[in-house]
Amino acid sequence: MDRRIVITGIGVVTPIGIGCEQFWTNLLEGRSGIAPVKTFDTSAYNVHRGAEVKEFDAEEYVLNLDAAHLGRASQFAIAAARLALADAGVEIGSLDRKRAGVSMGTTSGEPREVERFDDAYVSKNLDRIGPEFIQLYPCHVIAAHVASELNFAGVNTMIPTACAAGNYAIAHALDVMRAGRADLMLAGGSDAFSRITFTGFARLGAVAPEICQPFDRFRKGMIPGEGAGVLVLEPFDRARRRGARIYAEVGGYGLSCDAHHMTAAHPEGAGAERAMRHALADSCTNPEDVSYISAHGTGTPTNDRLETIAVKRLFKDEAYRIPISSIKSMIGHTMGAASAIEAAVCALAVFSNRVPPTMNLNEPDPECDLDYVANTARELPVNVAMNNAYAFGGNNASLILRKGELLN
Amino acid sequence: MIGNRVVITGAGVVSPLGDSPAHLHDSLCRGISAIKPIKLFSTAGLGCPLGGEISDFDATKYLGQRNLRPLDRTSRLVASAAQLALDNAGWSIEMRNDQEVGLVLGTMFCSVHTISEFDRRALEAGPAYASPMDFSNTVINAAAGQTAIVHNLREVNTTISTGVTSGLEAISYATELIRSGRARALLAGGADELCFESFYGFDRAGLLCRSDNSAGDFPIPFDRRRNGSALGEGAALLMLEDVALARARGAKILGEVVGHGSSYDCSRGRESGQSIDAIDSAVRQAMNDAFLLPHEIDCLSASANGSQTGDRHEAEGVRAALNGQTHKLPVTAIKSMLGETLGASGPMQAVALLETMCHGVLPGIPQLDEVEQDFPFEMARSENQEVDVVNGLINSIGFDGHCCSLILSRAEA
Q1: What pTM value is reported for the model?
Q2: Which fold has domain A252-406?
Q3: Cβ contact (<8 Å) for A203 and B70?
Q4: Where are the beta strands (DSSP E) in B156-265?
Q5: Does ipTM surpass 0.85 in this model?
Q6: Which residues of B, range 160-179, sit inside 8 Å of A by Cβ?
Q7: What stretches in chain B show pLDDT beneath 70?
Q8: Where are the alpha helices (DSSP H) in A92-163?
Q9: Structural domain boundaries of chain A?
């Protein structure tokens, strides 16, 4: 079994497009998916904008299960999984189903099912919540639904490590494949726009009123979003044998925990730095080899400042050379899907030698003094991309993707 | 198995049947049941009024006088079990400052109660009244994050959520990290709390034993009269270490994780053939991973919780995986007494199995009167059995598709 694991397919459901092509084109053009929230009435809130997925028809993607009886995060995940498999040119029937697995991340699981329960509870109509409920609201149903839809009987894991969950899920899939426990893994993350999440971030004062402007001096916060990203991972030898297009190799990853505060990052970025350091070591990458960093870049004053500190702590002078961008400026914070979608961006950057911009970055912040690829996409050789993600609970995860051409 | 050997150097448990491995095992061997009328929330209007709750749980008993206000019930259970496991393994706070220790936690719901309360407060009083502190606990990795803060656990911190199998999957995940050299010392296990919001889903789905059941109020795994499970709660964590580290620091080795396997039943428990096949696959993978043959498995700690179909699938799946060599296999099913503790269940079984390996007594299955006729378990008994276990198999099988098996071996004398 080849321990070199590569990405051969990408599937995304995002506020700026469904499917890899539409998403990537819009991303490079700097289009925004942020608009007034339609999922629920925001009149009782002091913020009103979000990044919702528009014109999504689950029936297009959910072919074997009953789409009407799936939560939205499961629907997104299935759509992204099918898009990724199609993109990879994988015939599902050609797989050994016991060696085909799923590893997904999420922040909230299927929050809308819990919200439906809460609505019924508050209005004293709990009878409306019936026997199907148990199959809908625990978070593991997202990975389960993907596997049931595709008839994948191998490893099936759900990793709910909040806003870094996508990276954790991809990292786990890498380990599963390195250990020879699967021939193919679908790995990524999914989250649905949620009243609970919106309320929480609004109460923390973390939501921006209009736009998301990571690293800008006058940035006002994050914008909650939704979506899904799924990658197809295969061993290099298998991918080459079937003549698959290889976007990138998953070089390695690093995890760490701040053990400092549930919602605030470590004041010196110590946990974030350790995760990046582990990722470099795991993938045998030198700091000077890193061509691009996809930032967590939420757009909150604290995150962007501390993330900058952490990158400088590790990369020292090299930090000023490396282009860094945050796509959350365009698609908002898609929660557990965020780092999965950003991993897709890293794979596309490595494959096409282009990196997306950080939009809405107009006034440089003296405390954020690195190269954030402000407002315009850039062409440059991208041999190695680092994908950073940080989460509530102090959960940090960094992933390294590198050029498939370097494989031989 | 390839890579570093993974040994168990400590265990911590908080359960309605005891807060130490020895106490838990003793209760199980006495046939004490945790299943009683629930006091944590009203069961009016629900079919089943029973559950295995920890009635007098007080986290300060384990964590001392500190500010526990930011921790909800699940987080307190996990932080308490972590303290017990770290103490049991001899990992002092000074050692943890020098060498990073991590945590891999399995949980099905973390706290869906906290999530729901947060949302209902916003619904009833308006979003401006929802508590920001509670929001930080609405993420499903909250208990792992809070526990890391309490105990300064800066290594890997991962939450695994695969339903009933979450805890055993967490041990498997941690095992792989140590085998590959990524981590050297990890707490791994699981937890779930008993709360209305999770209980309601199980009750409405008809998965719990009913008070009007002629067989009585209790789950009776593998019995022909079984008619559903009961929910329980608790937390159980193992201290897993690279064997070289454990030996170097002179730690007492309680056992070794020698194999694990996972699979998924795409029919989510609806089609017996597929369900049995998935269980067969998980058990076989675990045996292959451990380089063990069916006759080398000395006992089974079953996932069986009294479910009509679940127990049958497990019996058939194990028979297939062990090539029919199950008639002399001693079997226990501790969910008969603890109830279904969801994410904690597999790790609870692991803690009990370590005690069985050490003391040679396998708990019986209370009230087991007549094993379902065609089940291949002649050695599933209501009374305790004296056993000599070198390799013990633990199953964790969800009602909705996830299967995980783990094999523990006794510490070398």
Answers
A1: 0.98
A2: Peroxisomal Thiolase; Chain A, domain 1 (3.40.47)
A3: no
A4: 157-160, 185-192, 231-232, 234-242, 255-264
A5: yes
A6: 160-163, 166, 169, 173, 176-177, 179
A7: 1, 211-217, 413
A8: 111-122, 141-150
A9: 5-241, 252-406
